[in-house]
Design a protein that fits this description.
The complex is a heterodimer.
Chain A: H1 2-10, E1 34-35, E2 43-44, H2 46-53, H3 57-79, H4 82-99, H5 109-130, H6 139-152, H7 155-161, H8 164-175, H9 180-187, H10 191-220
Antiparallel strand pairs in A: 1-2
Chain B: H1 11-18, H2 29-46, H3 54-63, H4 66-88, H5 107-119, E1 123-134, E2 137-149, E3 154-158, E4 183-187, E5 214-218, H6 236-247, E6 254-260, E7 263-272, E8 285-292, E9 298-305, E10 318-329, E11 347-348, E12 357-359, H7 373-380, E13 395-402, E14 416-423, E15 426-434, E16 440-447, E17 450-457, H8 461-466, H9 470-473, E18 477-481, E19 491-495, E20 503-507, E21 511-517, H10 521-529
Parallel strand pairs in B: 5-11
Antiparallel strand pairs in B: 1-2, 1-10, 2-3, 4-5, 6-7, 7-8, 8-9, 9-10, 12-13, 13-14, 14-15, 15-21, 16-17, 18-19, 19-20, 20-21
Helix pairs in contact in B: 5-6
The chains are: A mainly alpha, B alpha+beta.
Chain lengths: 221, 538
């Protein structure tokens, strides 16, 4: 816990007093359904949430459609499988629907959904890892793939090569704009661990970006 | 920017990742989802009765199969723990001091001498370095000086390179004083956010222009954890002392002589093993503490934080390390040591996180007769369950209450109580709050032919306050049934994990209490067994 708070202090985010989260872009039509509540970015309005809790399918569908783009991006980066993403998200949303009555509002609804999607994706990853793998996708093949990715300095390939825990950390913090505190809440780990994973991921990915920029610069010149 | 500092967001990298393609959502995704939800609802409606009232099914699931066996193991372990603690408990002399043997033979003696070296001191100053170990190399996160006194005043200042460079550098000072707990932090270094990164909805509000200072003051802090109090988290040294005390019970750590920066020291290594909730050894949590031979003060505190939630988890572990040095023990501390100057024009942050704790009276605590139940009723509308027993030498130093606790709003009269007891630099804390059953949740879902159950229990107020990371810590919990007091017959949970302040929590149908800090396990239990019925109404 101490490490958690230390790093939170370093990030000027202790106590949640400095809002850092920018989560979801709202379209104009969503403005009446989703509203800013204090430090949270945009959350479902009380009426939508209450309706969903009361088993109103349409209200829940509204919530899903609102959060799905970011959650889908996260799930896809974790699972790297288009069909698997849909399966995982279906599972996650069903869980969320059935557990919505237990959502207390201590965290934002978005944070809560992120965590459900994340843990569901991990379940799918674990299940996939227990399934027999085709011969050609064994370790040797993966090593070759990794080497090729490094050689190409392709960001997506390198991102996929990151361990899932580093990948999800850098996606939530850098791509989705979450602070360490919220990311830690989503992942269920200390903020110090989030910081460490993000730092490790950035080191690896930066190499790809730098090379790409060099490449683009040489083309321009 | 130095490499040690980790900015909250790398916008360029984030934008690049955001730009990566993501397959579109299928058109029939939502309709398929709703179809599945309808099927789930029908399945739930058709499910046969469980044979237990709904409120008991969670308990029954939790108690079935392996958990029963684990609980039995835990009970045996707890009984053994109590036996060992009784046989080898620390007995202090009448003057409450221990004079350490110049040549200790055991790790236990080293620990006792370490606790004795500082326990009766009026003050302690030093330097603390926080970092992590990656690939065998120590990475410094933060370096700070700290000073504490036996009144509970505390100050910490970040020093060194990291306070002068980079977006995350800042000067930070805490002050807790005057019995009304306060937290004042001064960020003397800039935290710069490129204004172009602000979202249209304005939710990125951190915009500290370069060179500005940011200050924050939280009044109405609690007397101690688990509520927002400047105790443990601001000074891991406190937590280390409390954890060292736990090592006096149970299996003694291994000990060997080492050299740290040319100084002879003892290295104590132990493994904190969960023992009761996981069958595998991967829950074992190595801890290393290095103690200076001459001063008997800790130099290094290193622990492995198990990031994984299950044996086949994809999470990684994290090795954290605290280094201490430049100790000064017992010096008279000038009031300026705790003084915080807020630069003119500093940005004052709001106090929306004010925990809302109040002293029981505006008068000094020494004037309050805490045995006067009439006064307590007058002050807070109820009689708190003060402990009837505490170890010799401790005295009530701070008492606060909140009409609303940190997390769960409750009406006045069911308030939260937070007490601090001190004995020199030793301190322990007691809290009581209404039991919030809603924090314990469970459920199940079906996947194919398999049915999965899940359970998240955040009944521990330390977990409720600090979030899901404590779910892991709960695996380091030992259950002990209490005999006496308001929680007579209920199982108390001793949480002995090096990453959290050692504590005990127990709850009955109405109230949840914690005991934490510089107490042995036996003492925590004794304090808990002496708790009166909290908030006993007339």
């Amino acid at each position: 816990m101490c490490m958690v708070l230390f790093l939170a202090q370093m990030a000027l985010a202790d106590g949640g007093s400095v809002p850092l989260i920018v989560a979801i872009d709202d379209g104009p039509e969503a403005a009446t359904l989703f509203e800013r509540t204090g430090e949270q970015a945009t959350e479902a309005s009380a009426s939508v949430l209450a309706a969903a809790r009361a088993r109103d399918h349409a209200a829940f569908a509204t919530i899903v459609e609102h959060y799905d783009p970011r959650l889908r991006a996260l799930a896809y980066r974790l699972l790297r499988d288009e069909h698997g993403v849909n399966d995982a998200l279906q599972d996650a949303y069903v869980k969320a629907y059935l557990r919505l009555g237990e959502f207390r509002g201590d965290a934002g609804l978005g944070t809560w959904l992120y965590r459900i999607v994340y843990t569901t994706c991990l379940d799918h990853l674990r299940a996939a890892s227990r399934r027999p793998q085709p011969q050609e996708s064994g370790d040797e093949a993966m090593d070759d793939f990794a080497e090729a990715a490094v050689e190409r300095c392709d960001l997506e390939a390198l991102l996929n090569e990151l361990p899932p825990e580093q990948r999800v950390a850098v996606i939530l913090v850098d791509a989705h704009g979450m602070g360490f505190a919220h990311t830690a809440e989503v992942l269920g780990i200390p903020q110090g661990t989030v910081a460490s994973r993000v730092a490790s991921a950035r080191r690896k990915l930066r190499r790809a970006l730098a090379t790409r920029e060099q490449s683009e610069g040489s083309v321009t010149s | 920017m130095s490499e040690e500092q980790i900015p909250q967001r790398d916008d360029e990298l984030g934008a690049a990742i955001e730009g990566l393609p993501v397959p579109a959502r299928p058109d029939d995704f939502v309709s398929a989802l709703l179809t599945r939800i309808v099927a789930e609802e029908e399945a739930i409606a058709d499910a046969p009765p469980q044979g237990f009232p709904a409120t008991q099914t969670v308990l029954r699931r939790w108690l079935d199969g392996r958990r029963v066996r684990r609980l039995l193991i835990a009970a045996v372990a707890a009984a053994a723990l109590i036996t060992v603690g009784t046989l080898f408990g620390v007995s202090r002399g009448p003057d409450n001091t221990l004079h350490f043997d110049p040549d200790p033979a055991t790790a236990r003696e080293v620990i006792e001498s370490t606790l004795a070296a500082t326990g009766a001191a009026e003050s302690l100053q030093g330097v603390m370095v926080l970092g992590g170990v990656e690939d065998g190399e120590f990475r410094e996160f933060e370096r700070c000086t700290f000073v504490v006194n036996n009144d509970g005043d505390l100050a910490r200042r970040q020093v060194g390179e990291s306070s002068n460079t980079g977006a995350l550098g800042f000067d930070r000072v805490y002050r807790v004083a005057e019995h009304r707990l306060r937290h004042l932090a001064t960020y003397a270094q800039p935290y710069t956010v490129d204004s172009t990164t602000h979202e249209p909805d304005g939710t990125t509000t951190v915009d500290h222009r370069e060179g500005t200072s940011v200050a924050q003051e939280w009044s109405q802090m609690a007397a101690g954890p688990p509520y927002r109090a400047v105790v443990d988290d601001m000074l891991p040294w406190v937590r280390l002392r409390a954890y060292l005390r736990q090592l006096l019970e149970g299996e003694a750590p291994d000990m060997r002589e080492v050299t740290v920066d040319g100084r002879l020291a003892w290295e104590l290594t132990t493994v904190q093993n969960s023992g009761n909730l996981r069958d595998d050894s991967s829950a074992a949590q190595p801890v290393t503490i290095v103690v200076d031979q001459e001063t008997r003060l800790p130099l290094v505190y290193r622990w492995l934080y198990r990031g994984q939630e299950s044996p086949d988890s994809l999470f990684e572990d994290s090795l954290f390390e605290l280094r201490f040095g430049d100790y000064r023990l017992g010096d008279e501390i000038d009031d300026d040591a705790f003084k915080v100057d807020v630069p003119a024009g500093a940005l004052m942050l709001g106090d929306e996180m004010d925990p809302g704790f109040e002293g029981l009276d505006d008068r000094s605590f020494s004037e309050i007769d805490f045995d006067d139940q009439m006064l307590m009723r007058e002050q807070i509308g109820a009689v708190p369950g003060l402990p009837a027993w505490h170890p010799q030498g401790f005295g009530l130093a701070d008492a606060t209450w909140a009409a609303r606790p940190d997390v769960t709003p409750v009406p006045r009269g069911t308030a939260t109580l937070s007490l601090a007891y001190r004995r020199g630099l030793d301190a322990f804390y007691v809290s009581a709050e209404p039991t919030d059953r809603s924090v314990e949740t469970a459920g199940s879902w079906t996947e194919g032919e398999e049915r999965y159950t899940w359970r998240v229990d955040k009944s521990d107020p330390f977990g409720k306050a600090w979030g899901t990371s404590l779910e892991y810590r709960r695996q380091h919990t030992r259950g002990v049934r209490l005999h006496g007091g308001a929680f007579d017959g209920f199982v108390a949970h001793l949480v002995l994990d090096p990453s959290v302040l050692p504590h005990l929590w127990v709850q009955n149908d109405r109230y949840t209490a914690t005991v934490s800090g510089d107490l042995s396990q036996i003492e925590m239990i004794q304090v808990a067994e002496s708790l009166g019925a909290p908030w006993m109404k007339e």
